[in-house]
Amino acid sequence: MSIQLVTTVADLRAQGARLLREKQGVSQGLVPTMGALHEGHARLARTAVEQNDVVVASIFVNPLQFGDAVDLDRYPRTLDADLALLEEQGVDIAFAPPVEEVYPEGAPLVRVTAGPLGEKWEGASRPGHFDGALTVVAKLLHYGIPGTGLPPAGAFVSGNGGGLPAYRAYFGQKDAQQLALVRRMVADLNFPVEIIAVPTVRSGDGLALSSRNRFLSEDQREAALVLSRALRLLEERANAHEPLDLDSAQALVASQPMVELDYFDVVDPLTLEPLAENCRATPFRGEGLGIIAARVGPVRLIDNVPLSS
Of 177, 241, 242, 256, which has the fewest CB atoms closer than 10 Å, so is most exposed? Predict the structure, then answer.
């Protein structure tokens, strides 16, 4: 079956309900994206298709999370290619609304606030970014709730006994701080959705896939590989139960003159608080997350690696 493209919330809900009825479905998945899709998004979509009867992928470049209008304007829009990629993974519905559908009265006066968890790391470098991201994610999660377009009670019968289908949303581990914030928002505000994290997808040379990688020159891309090498160094030390020696890993990044480092640290995966006591003279213990952000030429890159011992 071909993927269905819808551009309004009403059509999204109606088509989702129709497909759940036709498939006698008991679960629905949502894959929120900003388009310019790559293999990382494909893995998100495939995971959702494997775990759900009906899958929706959204394609929406959210103006609220861009601090710079120039950055917003140059964000790649590749709708035809995106639809082809999603269809290949088996996604049922692509929701690609115009800005006026998501924000019918212009920029919203009331927004989700990321709070202290969103003020550090990426939030410190990009003020307001996470407020904008969480606001649109909250709207998308509401739009995708299965059952909102169903006919009256009694007209819908599914394998789960007629109750509302299970609901899951899929986010990439590469955007680790966003993932932590979405999980916190869902828990704190009682969203009826399970958040599923999907591991970071990398190219063969180790660079984490990103829609912005296309803006790197050949030399800049080669320089950017120092980010994943530095993270891999931390991972190897953690696996060997050695001190992480963050200073030497930071020095590795500093040795690449084309890379302008923003931050590089090891943090708690849930609170994002630094775990400095685990990073230097003593063997690493417990769970952590190595996080890094840097600018390479015109592109800001982020990456991370889960650590455990």
Answer: 241
Contacts of 187 (CB under 8 A, 6+ apart): none
Cα dist from 200 to 28, 63, 131, 174, whole Å: 23, 25, 23, 5
Kindly report the CA angle at 183 between 10 and 41, in degrees rounded to 5? Answer: 65
* N residues, the chain: 309
Nearest C-alpha neighbor of 302 from the set 211, 233, 234, 239: 211
Cross-sheet strand order for the sheet of 287-296: 259-267, 287-296, 299-308
Distance from C-alpha of 264 to C-alpha of 229, rounded to nearest angstrom = 13
β-pairing verdict for 287-296 and 299-308: antiparallel
C-alpha 143/C-alpha 54 separation (Å) is 14
Q: Which of 41, 129, 142, 241 is catalytic?
A: 41
- Residue 41 a catalytic site member: yes
Q: Nearest-CA neighbor of 128 among 108, 146, 148, 144?
A: 108
pLDDT in 10s for each residue of the chain, 309 residues:
699 999 999 999 999 999 999 999 999 999 999 999 999 999 999 999 999 999 999 999 999 998 877 788 888 899 999 999 999 999 999 999 999 999 999 999 999 999 999 999 999 998 999 999 999 999 999 999 997 665 544 333 334 445 679 999 999 999 999 999 999 999 999 999 999 999 999 999 999 999 889 999 999 999 999 999 999 999 999 999 889 999 999 999 999 999 999 999 999 999 999 987 656 678 888 899 999 999 999 999 999 999 997
